[in-house]
Each structure stands twice: as C-alpha cells, then as structure tokens.
Amino acid sequence: MKYLRFILHLFITFITLITKSYAQFSTSSLSSQCSSAVQTFLNSSEFNACFPYNKLTSQINSATSFQSIATSEKQLISVEDSVCSLPKCSDSLISNFNSTFQSKCSDDIAKNNTETMGIYDFIYVYSPFRDSFCLKNSTGGYCVIETLENIENAQIQGSYTNLSSKVLCTTCNKAIANTLLNYMKSHPPPSDLSTASTFLTTELNQTCGPSFLDGNVPLSATSAGVTIFDMSFAT
Ligand SMILES: *[C@@H]1O[C@H](CO)[C@@H](O)[C@H](O)[C@H]1NC(C)=O
Ligand SMILES: *[C@@H]1O[C@H](CO)[C@@H](O)[C@H](O)[C@H]1NC(C)=O
Ligand SMILES: *[C@@H]1O[C@H](CO)[C@@H](O)[C@H](O)[C@H]1NC(C)=O
Ligand SMILES: *[C@@H]1O[C@H](CO)[C@@H](O)[C@H](O)[C@H]1NC(C)=O
Ligand SMILES: *[C@@H]1O[C@H](CO)[C@@H](O)[C@H](O)[C@H]1NC(C)=O
Ligand SMILES: *[C@@H]1O[C@H](CO)[C@@H](O)[C@H](O)[C@H]1NC(C)=O
C-alpha cells in the first residue's frame, strides 16, 4: 500500500502545482521575486506547448471542487488527455526552469517551505512522471486510471485476500515502477522522494517478486497522435 501512497503523492504534487492559481502564487509564502519567476515560466508559451498549464488551471478552476476532479474518473481522464496529447517537455526546457528556480528562489529554497518543495519535486519528477502518467494498457486505457479502478474494486468487494498482489503486480504498475526507478537510479532523488522510493522497492520486491523490478518497462507511453486519435472516438 505504500507504493500506492507514493504514486498518489506524486500525482497530488503534480495536480497541486497545477491548481495553484496565479493569485494564490502571489499571496503565497514565496518571495515576490521567486513567485514572479515561477509564474512567468508556468505561463510561457514554451511551457504551455508541452504542458497544458493554463488549460488545466481553467479546467480545474471551473470544476466544482478539487475533490471532484480527484474522485471523478471522467475528469481525471480529461486531465490525462490534456497532458498526454501534447509532446513531452524537453529536458533543456525543464533544466532552464530549474536554473531560474534555483537562482530566483534561493532564499525560498533555504526556508524549506512546502510550496518550494512542491516545485522542486515537480522539476525533479517531471520526466519519469510524464512518461508514467501517459502509459496506456493493452486495451488503450490509461494505466493510472486502471490502478485507481483496481483499488476501488478491491475495496468495494471487501475482499482483502491477496489484495496487494492483485492490485500491485500488474503490467501497468510494473511499467510505472520501473520508469520511476530507472530514472531515480541515474538521478539521485531529493530526500522525501528517496524515502518513498525505498518503500516502493521493498514493497514491490516482496509482493511481486524480484523480476518485477528488473528495469523493464513492458508498455510504452502514448504519442501525441495516438491520443488525439483515441479522443476523436471517445467524444
Ligand atoms: C500569461 O500570458 C499571456 C500572453 O501569453 C498574457 O496575456 C497574460 O497576462 C499572462 N498572465 C500572467 C498572469 O502572467
Ligand atoms: C531543510 O531541510 C534539510 C533536509 O531535510 C535540512 O537539513 C535543513 O536543516 C532544513 N532547513 C531548514 C531551514 O529548516
Ligand atoms: C536542479 O538544479 C540543482 C542545483 O544545480 C541540481 O542539484 C538538480 O539536480 C537539478 N535538478 C534537475 C531535475 O535538473
Ligand atoms: C485498461 O485501463 C482501463 C482504465 O484506464 C480499464 O478500465 C481497463 O479495464 C484496463 N484494461 C485491462 C485489460 O486491464
Ligand atoms: C494468493 O497469492 C499466492 C501467491 O501469489 C497464491 O499462491 C495463493 O493461491 C493466493 N491465494 C488466494 C486465496 O487467491
Ligand atoms: C529483492 O529481494 C531479493 C531477496 O530478498 C534481493 O536479493 C534483491 O536484491 C531485491 N531486489 C531489489 C530490486 O531490491
């Protein structure tokens, strides 16, 4: 179950950053220098060409509540479609944002507040997270949704026999876990994510066996074309 918490933590970090409206940023605990540098990046046409920040902000602001997005499968799929229909942001774009963030927000970073940690985690995790977030299963559904459905079904049926292995040891989760772990192997994570990743490794190794974490990613992330094609049939 720690693995699920890990995924949800990442997901929530991701969504939380998205939901910060510009107004919230300016009244937040960030210094004005940091806040304006972050806002400028999030609102830039370069970033919005590969991550639909402005679109998601209005989508989320117009939803009745954040809770309704997190619990509505239809709304989650719509968020997934918005993110996955765009090409992935280049490493250099994210790395430029990191440099700006490190220089304009150095005082904020030193204070360890949750807002700066969230931005830091976002920068760190963007690449493998974008890959995992857009993974699709053999029938064309998003893996993230499949896992959430599996958790729900397991809970509704009230049967906790082998719940962990049924929910955890799926092809989707193997693809997600190895995508994240392969990235973490080559990029040392910040300490909060490092702890979570140790739990993840131990839990999955015990529950699903050592071959689960062999580094293989058995599914591939969607390309922009495939998602647009899928969407035209879904609507
Ligand atoms: C975001 O960018 C658009 C133009 O690309 C601009 O009109 C708008 O004022 C910007 N918003 C903020 C909050 O910076
Ligand atoms: C910030 O967090 C780091 C690591 O968790 C810690 O070593 C440091 O003392 C913290 N700084 C402040 C100002 O809380
Ligand atoms: C961001 O910059 C810091 C400081 O230069 C560096 O330690 C970190 O690895 C960078 N993160 C990413 C994801 O590039
Ligand atoms: C694929 O994922 C969707 C949710 O995105 C799920 O409803 C469907 O059952 C999954 N297919 C398989 C074969 O598990
Ligand atoms: C639980 O899983 C183990 C190993 O995966 C299997 O041998 C056992 O038959 C399963 N038990 C039930 C009740 O499904
Ligand atoms: C999984 O567990 C086995 C035996 O307990 C251990 O040898 C192996 O190194 C572990 N693999 C990972 C990826 O942690």
Automatic annotation (TrEMBL):
DUF7729 domain span: 25-214
Alphabetical keyword list: Signal
Organism in which the protein naturally occurs: Dentiscutata erythropus
Superkingdom of source: Eukaryota
Lineage: Eukaryota, Fungi, Fungi incertae sedis, Mucoromycota, Glomeromycotina
Extent of the signal sequence: 1-23
Keyword Signal recorded: yes
Keyword Signal: yes
InterPro entries (UniProt xref): DUF7729
Protein name: 26017_t:CDS:1
